[in-house]
Amino acid sequence: MTFELKLFNSFGIKANAVSIHIARNIQSLHQQYINAKNKQLPILLLGYGSNVLFVDNFKGIVIINRIKGLKLSETNKFWHIHVYSGENWHKLIIKLLKKGIYGAENLAMIPGCVGSAPIQNIGAYGLELKDICEYVDIISLKTKEINRISASKCNFKYRDSIFKYRYKQTHAIISVGLIFSKIWSPKLSYDILKKFNPLTVTPQQIFKTICKIRKNKLPNPSVIGNAGSFFKNPIISIEQAQKIKQKYPNCPQYIQSNSKIKISAAWLIDQCGLKGFEFGGAAVYIKQSLILINKNNASWKDIINLAKILNKSVIARFNIFLEPEVRFIGKKGEINPMKYIS
Ligand code: FAD
Ligand code: EPU
């Protein structure tokens, strides 16, 4: 017997697993790990499945993390939030706003669990998780020992952290510590937020503006299957960026702290004439070319083939490789996407 994963991945891709379990506490998380070990099966921990693409049936046990809870403490200057990893990220932001704790509003409406947020250092509209993260607690699935990793040791970078490389299969993120200054200062660096006056803008205004833009620009996964940006925005050398700028003066480019340049992958895809392009049941979303959608019962092969076409076109025209942001899950767990889309 196998279990269907379609409802557990926001792409809505059909795939199955040996079994699926919901963990609502540490004991049940541990128990599922032991069950899998006894049966010599791999495990896959999922939050909302909003950043994964199944590229095969998963021959193991899927554990859906719903370990919830929140503790609040304060010092003179800061709020400290200790939140369990199965909480919903967006609902947490709403809760904090209601309590008068501000600073996470730019990350509104990012789907997924709190525990998944540090893994790719979620980011949007000028803010990244690393800017508000104090620590990440991980639990050893074998011994239940909990270890605290301070934010400075998480190696947070653009869509990257230590958790993408270490602790997989042996540990789970069990809780995250967030820190907010009691003196709120708005993050208005992103273009669409520059219209606000920093002296008068409220966190609620920023929250509402971001929710409105996201609702308008991004497909709602419960209506149109997707996993957000399929690729990362490539980070290239200044020389390469300048060459592109000379030929295409409108090319959106953003200087990074390491003197490299981030270039818009959506723009690169648009330049190849691929906005709205379809392959089988998969398509490039018409309002945002970085998002691949499950338009019509797409299979994982449709999504992979579409991604391959986009990548080949962008390489041919700009000599830039698009690295997937979405995590590819194969028979036994996460796999390297390169061999699928190069
Ligand atoms: P899942 O997809 O369930 O898991 C992702 C990976 O983390 C998997 O490899 C899984 O095994 C692992 N994992 C999950 N939980 C744990 C745990 N507790 N311990 C250890 N490993 C774990 N991302 C952004 O950064 N910015 C955006 O603006 C953004 N917008 C999006 C918009 C849409 C419409 C969608 C669909 C996605 C968007 N994303 C965005 C991507 C996604 O929301 C984030 O990556 C999110 O953090 C994924 O959370 P999840 O719980 O769904 O993770
Ligand atoms: N653009 C195009 N064509 C498009 C869309 C955008 O040319 O179809 C150009 C425009 O010039 C636009 C620029 O690209 O100004 C940037 O677009 P946008 O603001 O939509 O952001 P993005 O770079 O496409 C990134 C993140 C999103 C995040 C937004 C907002 C990555 C991979 N993606 O998208 O994160 O929400 O910025 O900060 O960095 C995700 O990670 O899943 C995700 C949705």
Distance between the termini: 34 Å
Structural class of the secondary elements? alpha+beta
Roughly how much helix do the residues carry, as a percent range? 10-25%
List unreliable stretches of 5+ residues: none
Specify the biggest β-sheet.
Answer: 5 strands, antiparallel
Structure, explained:
It is built from seven helices and 21 strands. With 342 residues, the protein is an alpha+beta fold. The longest helix is centred in the C-terminal third of the chain and has 19 residues. It has a five-stranded antiparallel β-sheet with strand order 6-7-12-10-11, with no helix packed on it. The relative contact order is 0.13. It starts with a strand and ends with a helix. It binds flavin-adenine dinucleotide and uridine-diphosphate-2(N-acetylglucosaminyl) butyric acid. Uridine-diphosphate-2(N-acetylglucosaminyl) butyric acid binds next to β13 and α5.
